[in-house]
Amino acid sequence: YGKNTIKFLRLHREGKKHFVKEVEVCAHLRLTSPQEYLEGNNSLVIPTDTIKNIVLVLAKKNGIPSLEQFAIDICNHFMTTFCQVAYVKTYVQEVPWQRLHEDGVPHIHSFICVPDGIRFCEAEQCRNGPLVVFAGIKDLKLMKTTQSGFEGFYKNEHTTLPERHDRILCGELFCKWSYGECKDFDFDCIWKKIRECILEAFAGPPDCGEYSPSYQKTVNCIQMHVLSRVSQVQVIEVALNNTFYNVVDMKNLGLTNDKEVFVPVEAPYGSCACTLGRKKFFEA
């Protein structure tokens, strides 16, 4: 799990001359225990908000002498500071700013949301080997407005995220699964059934829902539900890119906002991912 799309500009001054580095950072960790996925125990989880703050603090203290060195600094910090971190991976991407000699052209991004998700599949085959088929769904944006929280996580001097027992859970889901060796399956039927399983596990029963103690636990619930209901699936990968919503403070407007008006946090956003499979498949 970790934090994606941490964007910031680092300004360095040498007299009247300024130098800038604008970067986008993705920092992912693997912990020594998967208890936050399997048990919903967040005691070892370093919040993705804390990960973001550490990246910004390192940029302030160390600067960015080079992209490579900055990535090394991030990895060294997590490895030397947190005993529960077993693995860290850092991606750093630079925005290509150049000194202005003529009028510049602004860079533009555009996004599209496909509410129903996009179906996809992959097929692999080696000569003299079996045909292997993968299928999946991506760009599936899901939300539930309650029955979600995040409490009991690891805290230190870099932690600013408050504990919450009732929050909006929203994310864009990517799911990919393997059937193993290809057989005479009804792929249309299986894909629809898996999509139903994803929605059921995310939302819970329609009359009451089901509490999610973390995005990680929700990811695991989706995987377990699919594996328990669809015998043809051997391995399933689920990634959930989180969209956070903050309650708007309306005190200065003379109003009390009882969790009725929210604003989305566009970036940075958290990301949780896990791959789960049947024991027999990995033994094979």
From TrEMBL:
Q: Where does urate bind?
A: 48-49, 150, 167, 216, 242
Q: In which pathway does it act?
A: Purine metabolism; urate degradation; (S)-allantoin from urate: step 1/3
GO biological process terms, alphabetically, are: purine nucleobase catabolic process; urate catabolic process
InterPro entries noted in UniProt: Uricase
Pfam families in UniProt = Uricase
Residues that hold O2 according to the record = 48, 242
- Select a single GO molecular function from the record's annotations and give it: urate oxidase activity
Described purpose of this protein according to its UniProt entry: Catalyzes the oxidation of uric acid to 5-hydroxyisourate, which is further processed to form (S)-allantoin.
Instruction: Write down what this protein is called.
Output: Uricase
Query: Which species?
Result: Chaetorhynchus papuensis
